[in-house]
Write a structure and sequence with these properties.
The complex is a heterodimer of chains A (295) and B (291).
Chain A: H1 2-36, H2 53-57, H3 62-93, H4 100-108, H5 115-125, H6 136-143, H7 160-185, H8 189-197, H9 202-213, H10 215-231, H11 234-240, H12 249-259, H13 263-294
Helix pairs in contact in A: 1-13, 3-7, 3-10, 4-7, 5-11, 7-10, 8-9, 10-13, 12-13
Chain B: H1 19-51, H2 73-113, H3 119-131, H4 135-147, H5 154-177, H6 182-190, H7 195-203, H8 208-224, H9 227-232, H10 240-249, H11 255-287
Helix pairs in contact in B: 1-11, 2-5, 2-8, 2-10, 2-11, 3-5, 5-8, 6-7, 8-11, 10-11
Classes of the chains: A mainly alpha (295), B mainly alpha (291).
Amino acid sequence: MRRYRRWLPGLVLLAPSMIAIAVFVYGLIGWNFKLAMSDQHDQVTAGKFVGLENFTALWDDERWGLAVRHAVLFTVVFVLGALVLGWFLALLMDKGIRGEGGFRAVYLFPMAVSFIATGIVWRWLMSPAPPERGVGLNQLFDSVGLGFLANEWWQNRSYGMAAMALPAIWQMSGYVMALYLAGFRGVPDELREAARVDGCTEWKVYRYVVFPHLRPVTLAALIILGHISLKIFDLVVAIATKQIIADVPAVYMWVMTFDAHDPAKGATIAAYMLLAVAVLVIPYLVWTVRSERRA
Amino acid sequence: MTAVSPPQARPVAPRAVPRPRRRRLPVVRMTLLLVFALVFLMPVYVLLVTSFKPLSEADPSRAWLLPEVWTAEGWRAAWTALAPGLWNSVQLAVPGSLISAVLGSLNGYVLAKWRFPGADAVFTLFLFGMFIPYQAVMIPLVQLMTAADLIGGIPGLVLAHVVYGLPITTLIFRNYYVTIPDEMVEAARVDGAGMFRTYRWVVLPLSGPAFAVVLIWQFTALWNDFLFAVFLTGPLSWPTTVALNNIAGAQVVPYSQQMAAALLASLPTLIVYVLLGRFFMRGLMAGALKG
């Protein structure tokens, strides 16, 4: 009885939240899968079970294929871009620099802004019209004699989504910088000093002592950027509304649910999004919780 | 941790690197950092400059120049269009972040100090809820909210944010409470204090920084959310982000008004960031699972 009293109150106190998570996260995910496996393609008829039919049929949909390709291109450019830029900024600041607090504030403030507001200003910056008629970067390039750089940005058929990743990089690379800076500063000074005494150049100190210490940071940053990227929605809506040329799974899901009124198809897209995130995140979560318990 | 001593001052400087280059290095770093800072601030310049331009200066060739005549007409129009959304966002973000913080604090306390068998598994299940694409629950959530008559209004949106905010708030508080020595909780226990009294008299007085982090984090998340808002609210209760997107989505709206509206919508979170950046930073770190 005494032993129960040690943990039972805690369980009782946590119970409401556990029930909420069980219902709203796992229950609704289950419901969503049930919907995705039904033929409820309008909002009137009750759907019946059709197995994985929607999941295979989706791949015959040209617009879905396009959305997936867009998401892949966006993810590659955004994740690599934010990772490299954030890492580089942290490297520049690692040894301390005058006005460090100010630089950090400047690189980080975009995080506090909504994707919608970001989208509005970047839509202006990435205005696809040629300099004579357009605003933004094309205009700026032209006025400083770099007119050949003017392009159609996100409206280009082949690389448009790479341009779409620019505002996302602007918004998130400060965060990556902060993660890496904490990582750099977490490397014990004695280790660096020892390497220097052993005759390492400053570059070799980084290469063989500091960078290997940053692997967990890189992994954490990859997971965070990756799951943001797979879910990207607001930014695309703010910049391109619902144009097919900038479709990503999240936007297509919205279109299917709201405009096409096809719950089963919307749920199928959502299920694929969940699977993509789960493949990325679950191994990481299990690994993190386990290694923390060991520590 | 701000070691500002320049590298060449170190006594055991390796000789392999030629000296002149080493002296130039801090200058190069500073220059690069300044260039990046300019690039990062460029959108702010655009927002400010454009928002104060009169319609007569809408000529593309003047796009990057300062206004010849500064006017607040864009701001006035933006305020008129955005005011209801801003008020809705206040009604959403203030109670939402307060409720989230209280629940997160209690949950984190249990998971750090009153652990029960299987608590790790429960924690992991909570954490996964932080990463899911909310699209995967959205269609059933809309049906559920409709059935509960919570669709279209702010209370339903607050409920959704509080529930889906449980993982991150619990995580931040748990990681914070883990650093409180077990002996303090144990001592209170030996003195006969139960779970709530220990929380009230030992844990809560130490919780200030964690509350700051969670309140800022949730306030920012709720203020900036678009996805839940667009699925769960109707025109009367649209928060700032949806109102803003509608303003910008209408192609006839002049740039000055769009930019002023974007700035107006971002001001509350930017002010919070400027005043309390330290706590904002800690929230970001907690998001990376490393408390």
